[in-house]
């Protein structure tokens, strides 16, 4: 039997912070599958936990998805036939679901205070068990609820968990069965009237016609509860696909401890979205045949659920850096220019703070060919944005390059200065030719001249090729800096 229903998938972030690479992976896989199969990709904001919400996080998540090129067909920011797409705007739906469950005896009120629950938990722990809420023989009725409210007790609604085991047939992780004894009467409506994540998530997947739920493996343990709720509410159970965990190179949960984890942080560090997306696509999925580099269109073409593995994915930062280096090298001029402009608008470093004139940008990009990220430009070209009289020479660089061997570097500067002073056409090509003929005449290698020049004009030993470095800096500033370095010599 072929299922001809279009796939409806969703990404359902809680707006608790910026989009991290794990969330981006979930969004990307859902997006790719929807595109691949002609389905619909929905963005739903799960914002019912007021204490954890971060103002503006929803907008930032959307900004980051857009930057990655992950577009959604329905949802927050774009609307659609199943809106609103913010859960706090759908509270009536959850309340009526709770009413239905209460009416059919599949849910009941409970009134314990946090202290009472804590004491119950402690008693259970003493017997080496986790708390399983003791379902009362008679469910409280409306007058019990009134009395509890008058007594200032919290009023919550709990779900009557089924007496039978629940099986999840996960399309990635396989079959997982949870025994009835392990399913507890969890809370579906909190004392403040808000639904819990479980209830809102299940009600919305039903209302929005989601027929495949693809999300991180950390949610697999919750899925039996969701299936039980779907059955109680008469909702169809969607297909499930839980994605393998993403670990760092030491096999620990990926965290900020060893570098950026947020999409926006990678943007600010100078990564191209196409490189990041390509890298993220391979966290748990691969097209096979050893293939790694793909355009977004190729990913759509090649994506399939069958090729998502169960093995934990490794977040290899070196590999990401290599992807980015290659993507920067492969980008054509206009793509590179646009991405650089974007980076200048979001990054915060001495170079972006100084403001890079538009006319200088193409030359900067050319001089930094081979860079790993745009951040390299800030590191290698910061010297351009310092006033000549504020440039300080790194003492280690001075010792290694200028004063060593009885001031050999300084002497070289002294000699090369007239050759540069006599040069009127100040382009990288002209500078290169002049330095080469200077070296040929003296029988020295270019490096012997380039490093002293570099230290004199940048204060460091790292910058673009020497001819590009001097060309970018301009004639007057170059000569000025060489003279200053020579004058400062002791
Ligand atoms: N709001 C949940 C989260 O924080 C979504 C879980 C799901 O996809 O079902 O990621």
Query: What is the class of the largest domain in the CATH system?
Result: Alpha Beta
Q: Ligands bound here?
A: glutamic acid
Mean pLDDT: 96
General form: elongated
Beta-strand portion reads: 5-15%
Low-confidence stretches: none
The count of strands amounts to 12
Radius of gyration: 31 Å
Write the CATH architecture name of the largest domain: 3-Layer(aba) Sandwich
Please sum up the structure shown.
With 490 residues, this protein is mainly alpha-helical. It has helices at residues 21-37, 57-68, 91-103, 114-126, 142-150, 197-207, 223-233, 263-269, 273-281, 296-302, 317-330, 333-346, 350-354, 361-367, 375-381, 395-421, 428-442, 446-458, 466-473, 475-488; strands at residues 8-11, 40-43, 74-75, 107-110, 156-159, 166-170, 174-178, 187-189, 212-216, 239-243, 246-247, 313-314. It has 4 domains: 8-87 and 246-314, Rossmann fold, CATH 3.40.50; 90-243, 3-Layer(aba) Sandwich (Rossmann fold), CATH 3.40.50; 331-385, no CATH class; 388-487, Orthogonal Bundle (Arc Repressor Mutant, subunit A).
Q: Could you explain the architecture of this structure?
A:
The protein folds into 4 domains: 8-87 and 246-314, HUPs (Rossmann fold, 3-Layer(aba) Sandwich), CATH 3.40.50.620; 90-243, 3-Layer(aba) Sandwich (Rossmann fold); 331-385, no CATH class; 388-487, Arc Repressor Mutant, subunit A (Orthogonal Bundle), CATH 1.10.10. A hairpin with a 3-residue loop joins strand 6 (166-170) and strand 7. The longest helix is centred in the last third of the chain and has 27 residues, at 395-421. The mean pLDDT is 96. It has helices at 21-37, 57-68, 91-103, 114-126, 142-150, 197-207, 223-233, 263-269, 273-281, 296-302, 317-330, 333-346, 350-354, 361-367, 375-381, 395-421, 428-442, 446-458, 466-473, 475-488; strands at 8-11, 40-43, 74-75, 107-110, 156-159, 166-170, 174-178, 187-189, 212-216, 239-243, 246-247, 313-314. It is mostly helical and 490 residues long. It is elongated and about 100 Å long. The strands form 5 sheets. Strands 1-2-3 form a 3-stranded parallel beta sheet. A 3-stranded antiparallel beta sheet has the order 4-5-8. The chain has a two-stranded antiparallel sheet with strand order 6-7. It contains 20 helices and 12 strands. The site of glutamic acid (GLU) has 7 residues, from loops.
């Amino acid at each position: 039997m072929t299922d001809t229903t279009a796939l409806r998938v969703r990404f359902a972030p809680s707006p608790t912070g910026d989009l991290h690479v794990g969330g981006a992976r979930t969004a990307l896989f859902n997006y790719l599958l929807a595109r691949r199969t002609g389905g619909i990709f929905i963005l739903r904001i799960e914002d019912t936990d007021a204490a954890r919400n971060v103002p503006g996080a929803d907008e930032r998540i959307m900004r980051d998805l857009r930057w990655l090129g992950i577009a959604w067909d329905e949802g927050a920011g774009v609307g659609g036939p199943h809106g609103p797409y913010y859960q706090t705007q759908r509270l009536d739906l959850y309340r009526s679901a709770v009413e239905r469950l209460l009416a059919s005896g599949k849910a009941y009120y409970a009134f314990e205070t946090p202290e009472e629950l804590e004491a119950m938990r402690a008693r259970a722990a003493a017997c080496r068990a986790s708390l399983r809420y003791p379902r009362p023989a008679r469910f409280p009725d409306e007058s019990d609820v009134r009395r509890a409210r008058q007594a200032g007790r919290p009023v919550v609604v709990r779900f009557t968990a089924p007496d039978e085991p629940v099986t999840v047939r996960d399309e990635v992780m396989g079959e997982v069965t949870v025994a009835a004894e392990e399913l507890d009467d969890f809370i579906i409506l909190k004392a403040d009237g808000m639904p819990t994540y479980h209830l809102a998530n299940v009600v919305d997947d039903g209302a929005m016609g989601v027929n495949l739920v693809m999300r991180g493996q950390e949610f697999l343990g919750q899925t039996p509860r969701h299936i039980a709720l779907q059955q109680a509410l008469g909702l169809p159970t969607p297909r499930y696909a839980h994605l393998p965990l993403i670990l760092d190179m030491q096999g620990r949960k990926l965290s900020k401890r060893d570098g950026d984890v947020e999409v926006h942080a990678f943007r600010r560090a100078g990564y191209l979205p196409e490189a990041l997306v390509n890298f993220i696509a391979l966290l748990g999925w691969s097209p096979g045949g050893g293939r790694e580099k793909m355009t977004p269109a190729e990913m759509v073409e090649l994506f399939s659920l069958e090729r998502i593995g169960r093995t934990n994915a490794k977040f290899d930062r070196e590999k990401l850096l290599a992807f980015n280096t290659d993507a920067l090298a492969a980008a054509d001029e206009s793509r590179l220019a646009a991405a650089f402009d974007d980076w200048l608008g979001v990054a915060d470093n001495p170079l972006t703070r100084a403001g890079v004139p538009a006319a200088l940008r193409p030359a900067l990009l050319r001089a930094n060919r081979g860079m790993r990220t745009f951040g390299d430009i800030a590191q290698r070209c910061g010297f351009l944005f310092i006033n000549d009289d504020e440039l300080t020479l790194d003492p280690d660089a001075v010792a290694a390059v200028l004063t060593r061997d009885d001031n050999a570097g300084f002497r070289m500067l002294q000699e090369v200065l007239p050759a540069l002073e006599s040069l009127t056409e100040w382009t990288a090509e002209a500078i290169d030719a002049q330095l080469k003929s200077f070296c040929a005449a003296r029988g020295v290698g270019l490096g012997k001249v380039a490093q002293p020049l570099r230290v004199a004009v940048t204060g460091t030993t790292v910058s673009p090729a020497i001819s590009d470095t001097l060309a970018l800096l301009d004639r007057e500033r170059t000569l000025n800096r060489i003279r200053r370095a020579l004058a400062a010599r002791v």
